[in-house]
Amino acid sequence: APKPSNSPFAPLVHRSSPGLASEPGSRGWTREHPRHTAGLLSGLARWGESVAVGTTDGEVFEVSAAGAWTKLGPRRNVSIVALASIDARVLYVLDADGAVFRTVDGRNFKQVRPPPALGTDERREAGDWRPYRTLSARQVKGKEMVLVAGLSRHAAYSRDAGNSWEEVELGGPETLRASFVGANGDFVVAGDRGRVFVGPREGKGWDEHHIAEKPAI
């Protein structure tokens, strides 16, 4: 017989429609859809009292706590990859071309980094073609810090709301899959093979950390 669980959470119940509450008013997740977009949802970020949502067809929506969808603009012609917010009304958007946009009102989007050049096939193989795929932002001591990392070993960061950028090459050919801006202004990037990079340290560049290998089974 199975042992009794001390967990305070109720056991998961698998339904044909995952996450949908079984009866109106019952506890559970509610499935929402904007109904006026054909794109798949591709990014989320808290934005004020609402949530910003990006789609694969280049749209950005604001979703209120009541479930109302409001389209923000303008629409981009490529997929939205990620979103990040600072405080209540500053929103950053990253698209599949590696371009970053900033808005404070949801209507006017200013591009704060041009898309990286595609280059030649040889440069692509060398890792110089690198659309970014992860985006993080945070306000630290009154400064807007922004961090993006890509499919190869490159990351770029800004300390002035995207007005100027620095780019760094981290590690080997591993994909950089996650990024984070710490409360003290550190930039953190995580990649494949258990590698984590923190920096830049003054006069020292970036610190590299290795997560222990998985034990053999």
Structure description:
This protein is mainly β and 217 residues long. It has one helix and 16 strands. The chain has one helix at residues 121-125, and strands spanning 41-47, 50-55, 60-63, 69-72, 80-86, 90-95, 100-103, 110-113, 132-140, 143-150, 154-158, 166-169, 176-181, 187-191, 195-201, 205-210. The strands form four sheets. A four-stranded antiparallel sheet has the order 1-2-3-4, with no helix packed on it. A four-stranded antiparallel sheet has the order 5-6-7-8, with no helix packed on it. The protein has a four-stranded antiparallel sheet with strand order 9-10-11-12, with no helix packed on it. The two termini are 27 Å apart. Residues 5-21 have low confidence and may be disordered.
Condensed summary:
The chain has one helix and 16 strands. The chain is mainly beta and 217 residues long.
Q: What's the topology here?
A:
Blueprint: E1 41-47, E2 50-55, E3 60-63, E4 69-72, E5 80-86, E6 90-95, E7 100-103, E8 110-113, H1 121-125, E9 132-140, E10 143-150, E11 154-158, E12 166-169, E13 176-181, E14 187-191, E15 195-201, E16 205-210
